[in-house]
């Protein structure tokens, strides 16, 4: 089954008073929108972002190639309909950029229910406060039994054809599941997560930072790697095989992105470096894939008592062109590291040095970890 993901990011952010769309507000090292994209990239075949009018180019440049950017509508439902118009997946996740920290695991659990035959799936948390229904004068009308109440989150998952049918009436709703309900469809509720909280005010950012582990012992690290191109070598980069590209020389598969990420994680945790852990004196790592090295690196980091908050890697070279496979690269790296947040970018050096002269490729990575 193919999965499209629509991220509703056309909100104005007026309650923040920031003067920019809410999705572009910064949370730690990235915007809310980038956090949301990173969470869905490992599980979605297509990612569609709905943007405010006038911000299409800026958001497209921020996210890079491989992300479909469409202009949002005047309402959330209208924005989702614009996204549905270009969705190609058999199933679709609908997510709010404001729930930036909803995890990849949550999206995976929603998809699992769709794979089991459900048509509509929503995550939710039990309501812990007493809820009152009031009239227009502010008097209590009734008190619902909170045992039957839940607070709905995103991403929500749907069979694409069913959601299109539900939107055909052009009705408005605060979430897409309500349209399925109105059409007589059944909506499956699964357990949500605290970190999928909606970020609507500046105070909410502090809560979100705590979910990122900022407030524990935080450490960061930087890693770099470079390899020269070599005849007869396959190109492996960011955990992906690039069949039409010349590979690089190296003890392992020469995946500079994976190697830089490992070095950054080792630096952040004080566990040495790539050479001391997987160097040429370790014959068992001859020809080892970048994916294997990242998996073993993540295991060492966890054993030392650290959790990976996120990694970011920039690939430096004239080729291969990263843009069209950026989402694949994010997914491959995130999967190898256990589902963490990942950012991938690329640049050139304007004809200077090893990479600029087309003799090789390099990468630089940063990692943020927290002591558990």
Topology:
Elements: E1 3-8, E2 26-27, E3 30-31, H1 32-40, E4 46-51, H2 56-63, E5 67-71, H3 76-84, E6 91-96, H4 104-115, E7 120-126, E8 133-134, E9 140-142, E10 150-152, E11 156-159, H5 160-167, H6 176-182, E12 188-191, H7 202-211, E13 217-237, E14 240-248, H8 256-269, H9 274-278, H10 290-303, E15 306-316, H11 326-336, E16 341-347, H12 353-356, E17 360-371
Structure characteristics:
alpha/beta, eight-stranded mixed beta sheet, single chain, metal-binding, 2 domains, nucleotidyltransferase
What does this protein structure show overall?
This protein is α/β, with parallel strands linked by helices and 372 residues long. The chain folds into 2 domains: 3-200, Spore Coat Polysaccharide Biosynthesis Protein SpsA, Chain A (Alpha-Beta Complex), CATH 3.90.550.10; 217-371, 2-C-methyl-D-erythritol 2,4-cyclodiphosphate synthase (60s Ribosomal Protein L30, Chain: A). It is built from 12 helices and 17 strands. It has helices at residues 32-40, 56-63, 76-84, 104-115, 160-167, 176-182, 202-211, 256-269, 274-278, 290-303, 326-336, 353-356; strands spanning 3-8, 26-27, 30-31, 46-51, 67-71, 91-96, 120-126, 133-134, 140-142, 150-152, 156-159, 188-191, 217-237, 240-248, 306-316, 341-347, 360-371. The strands form 4 sheets. Strands 1, 4, 5, 6, 7, 10, 11 and 12 form an 8-stranded mixed β-sheet that branches. Strands 14-13-17-15-16 form a 5-stranded mixed β-sheet. The mean pLDDT is 92.
């Amino acid at each position: 089954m193919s999965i499209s993901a629509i991220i509703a990011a056309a909100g104005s952010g007026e309650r923040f008073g920031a003067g920019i769309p809410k999705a572009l507000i910064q949370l730690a090292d990235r915007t809310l929108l980038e956090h949301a994209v990173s969470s869905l990239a490992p599980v979605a075949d297509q990612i569609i972002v709905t943007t405010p009018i006038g911000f299409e180019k800026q958001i497209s440049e921020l996210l890079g190639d491989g992300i479909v950017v469409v202009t949002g509508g005047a309402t959330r439902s209208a924005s989702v309909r614009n996204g549905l118009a270009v969705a190609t997946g058999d199933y679709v996740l609908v997510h709010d950029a404001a729930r930036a920290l909803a995890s990849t695991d949550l999206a995976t659990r929603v998809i699992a229910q769709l794979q089991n035959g459900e048509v509509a799936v929503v995550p939710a948390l039990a309501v812990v406060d007493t809820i009152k229904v009031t009239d227009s004068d502010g008097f209590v009308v009734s008190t619902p039994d909170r045992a039957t109440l839940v607070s709905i989150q995103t991403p929500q998952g749907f069979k694409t054809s069913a959601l299109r049918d539900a939107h055909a009436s052009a009705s408005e709703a605060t979430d897409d599941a309500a349209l399925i309900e109105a059409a007589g469809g059944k909506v499956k509720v699964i357990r949500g997560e605290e970190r999928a909280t909606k970020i609507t005010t500046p105070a909410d950012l502090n809560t979100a930072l705590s979910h990122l582990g900022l407030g524990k012992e935080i450490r960061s690290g930087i890693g770099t790697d470079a390899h020269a191109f070599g005849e007869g070598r396959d190109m492996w980069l960011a955990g992906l095989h690039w069949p039409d590209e010349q590979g690089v020389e190296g003890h392992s598969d020469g995946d500079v992105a994976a190697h830089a990420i490992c070095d950054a994680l080792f630096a952040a945790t004080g566990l040495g470096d790539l050479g001391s852990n997987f160097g040429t004196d370790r014959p068992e790592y001859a020809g080892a894939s970048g994916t294997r090295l990242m998996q073993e690196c993540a295991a060492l980091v966890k054993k030392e008592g650290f959790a990976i908050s996120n990694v970011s890697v920039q690939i430096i070279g004239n080729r291969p062109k990263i843009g069209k496979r950026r989402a694949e690269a994010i997914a491959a790296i995130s999967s190898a590291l256990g589902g963490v947040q990942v950012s991938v970018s690329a640049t050139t050096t304007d004809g200077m040095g090893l990479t600029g002269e087309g003799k090789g490729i390099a990468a630089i990575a940063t990692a943020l970890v927290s002591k558990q």
